[in-house]
Amino acid sequence: MRYFVGVRIESRSAWKIALSAVEALAGAMCLASCATVEGSFHENGMARAVTDLSCPSNLLKLGVLVRNEHGRSDCRGSRVEIAGCGKSAFYICNETGDWLRDPASLSFGIEPRGVDEFLAKSDIADVVTSHDREVRRCYKDRLDQIRSLDLRGKVWVAWAIDGEGKVLEANVTKTTLHDLHVENCIVLQVRGWSFPKPLGGNQVVTRRSWTFDYIFRGVDN
């Protein structure tokens, strides 16, 4: 004998019918809420993932890692993983409902190369130093916004420079700051930098790290 939602169910067949009904209801409820995240990503994030991973959408598989739990009718606060063609990436739905690639979860996958061979380390350092104030503005603006004394740490960024001196791609490869607002801001800044043209039009990969605290420490290698 079993009791189900306050109803006494005596037969096994009746129990199975009741259980099936609840599973169907749960499935319908999940469809209403689950489709929000998946549907939002397919509508607003899939095209970006296709470009980021250089993989057609029909080969990409979506997995929801964090589903918003605030009863919202949109994707805010959710996090997904998209994988295909031997690659994967993570995306986060921000407060405006946009899907952004999570830079803290990415690995650049290759070691620095071509530095001093095709492009002098001093030339790279000159460009980085000239933009240091912009990078630190990312941190200061966020600190002013949340006013938290826990916002401090180190962010490592790697980027590739093409034969024309433009930044092809930039990613956070490691972070102890753990703040997507600051990390995304830094990556966007780096992607807009211009460097001297590397010798022979060769691609150069380099990396840099910044340490952030209340007194704004200097740039570290």
CATH topology annotation of the largest domain: TolA/TonB C-terminal domain
Task: Describe the sheet with the most strands.
Answer: 4 strands, antiparallel
Q: What count of helical segments does DSSP give? A: 5
Order of helices and strands: EEHHEEEEHHEEHEE
Question: Mind telling me which CATH architecture of the largest domain this is?
Answer: 2-Layer Sandwich
Textual characterization of the structure:
With 221 residues, the chain is α+β, with helices and mostly antiparallel strands. The protein folds into two domains: 34-101, no CATH class; 121-220, TolA/TonB C-terminal domain, CATH 3.30.2420. 35% of the residues lie in helices and 26% in strands. It has a four-stranded antiparallel β-sheet. The protein has a four-stranded antiparallel β-sheet with strand order 8-7-9-10, with helices on one face. Strands 1-2 form a two-stranded antiparallel ribbon. A hairpin with a 2-residue loop joins strand 4 (79-84) and strand 5.
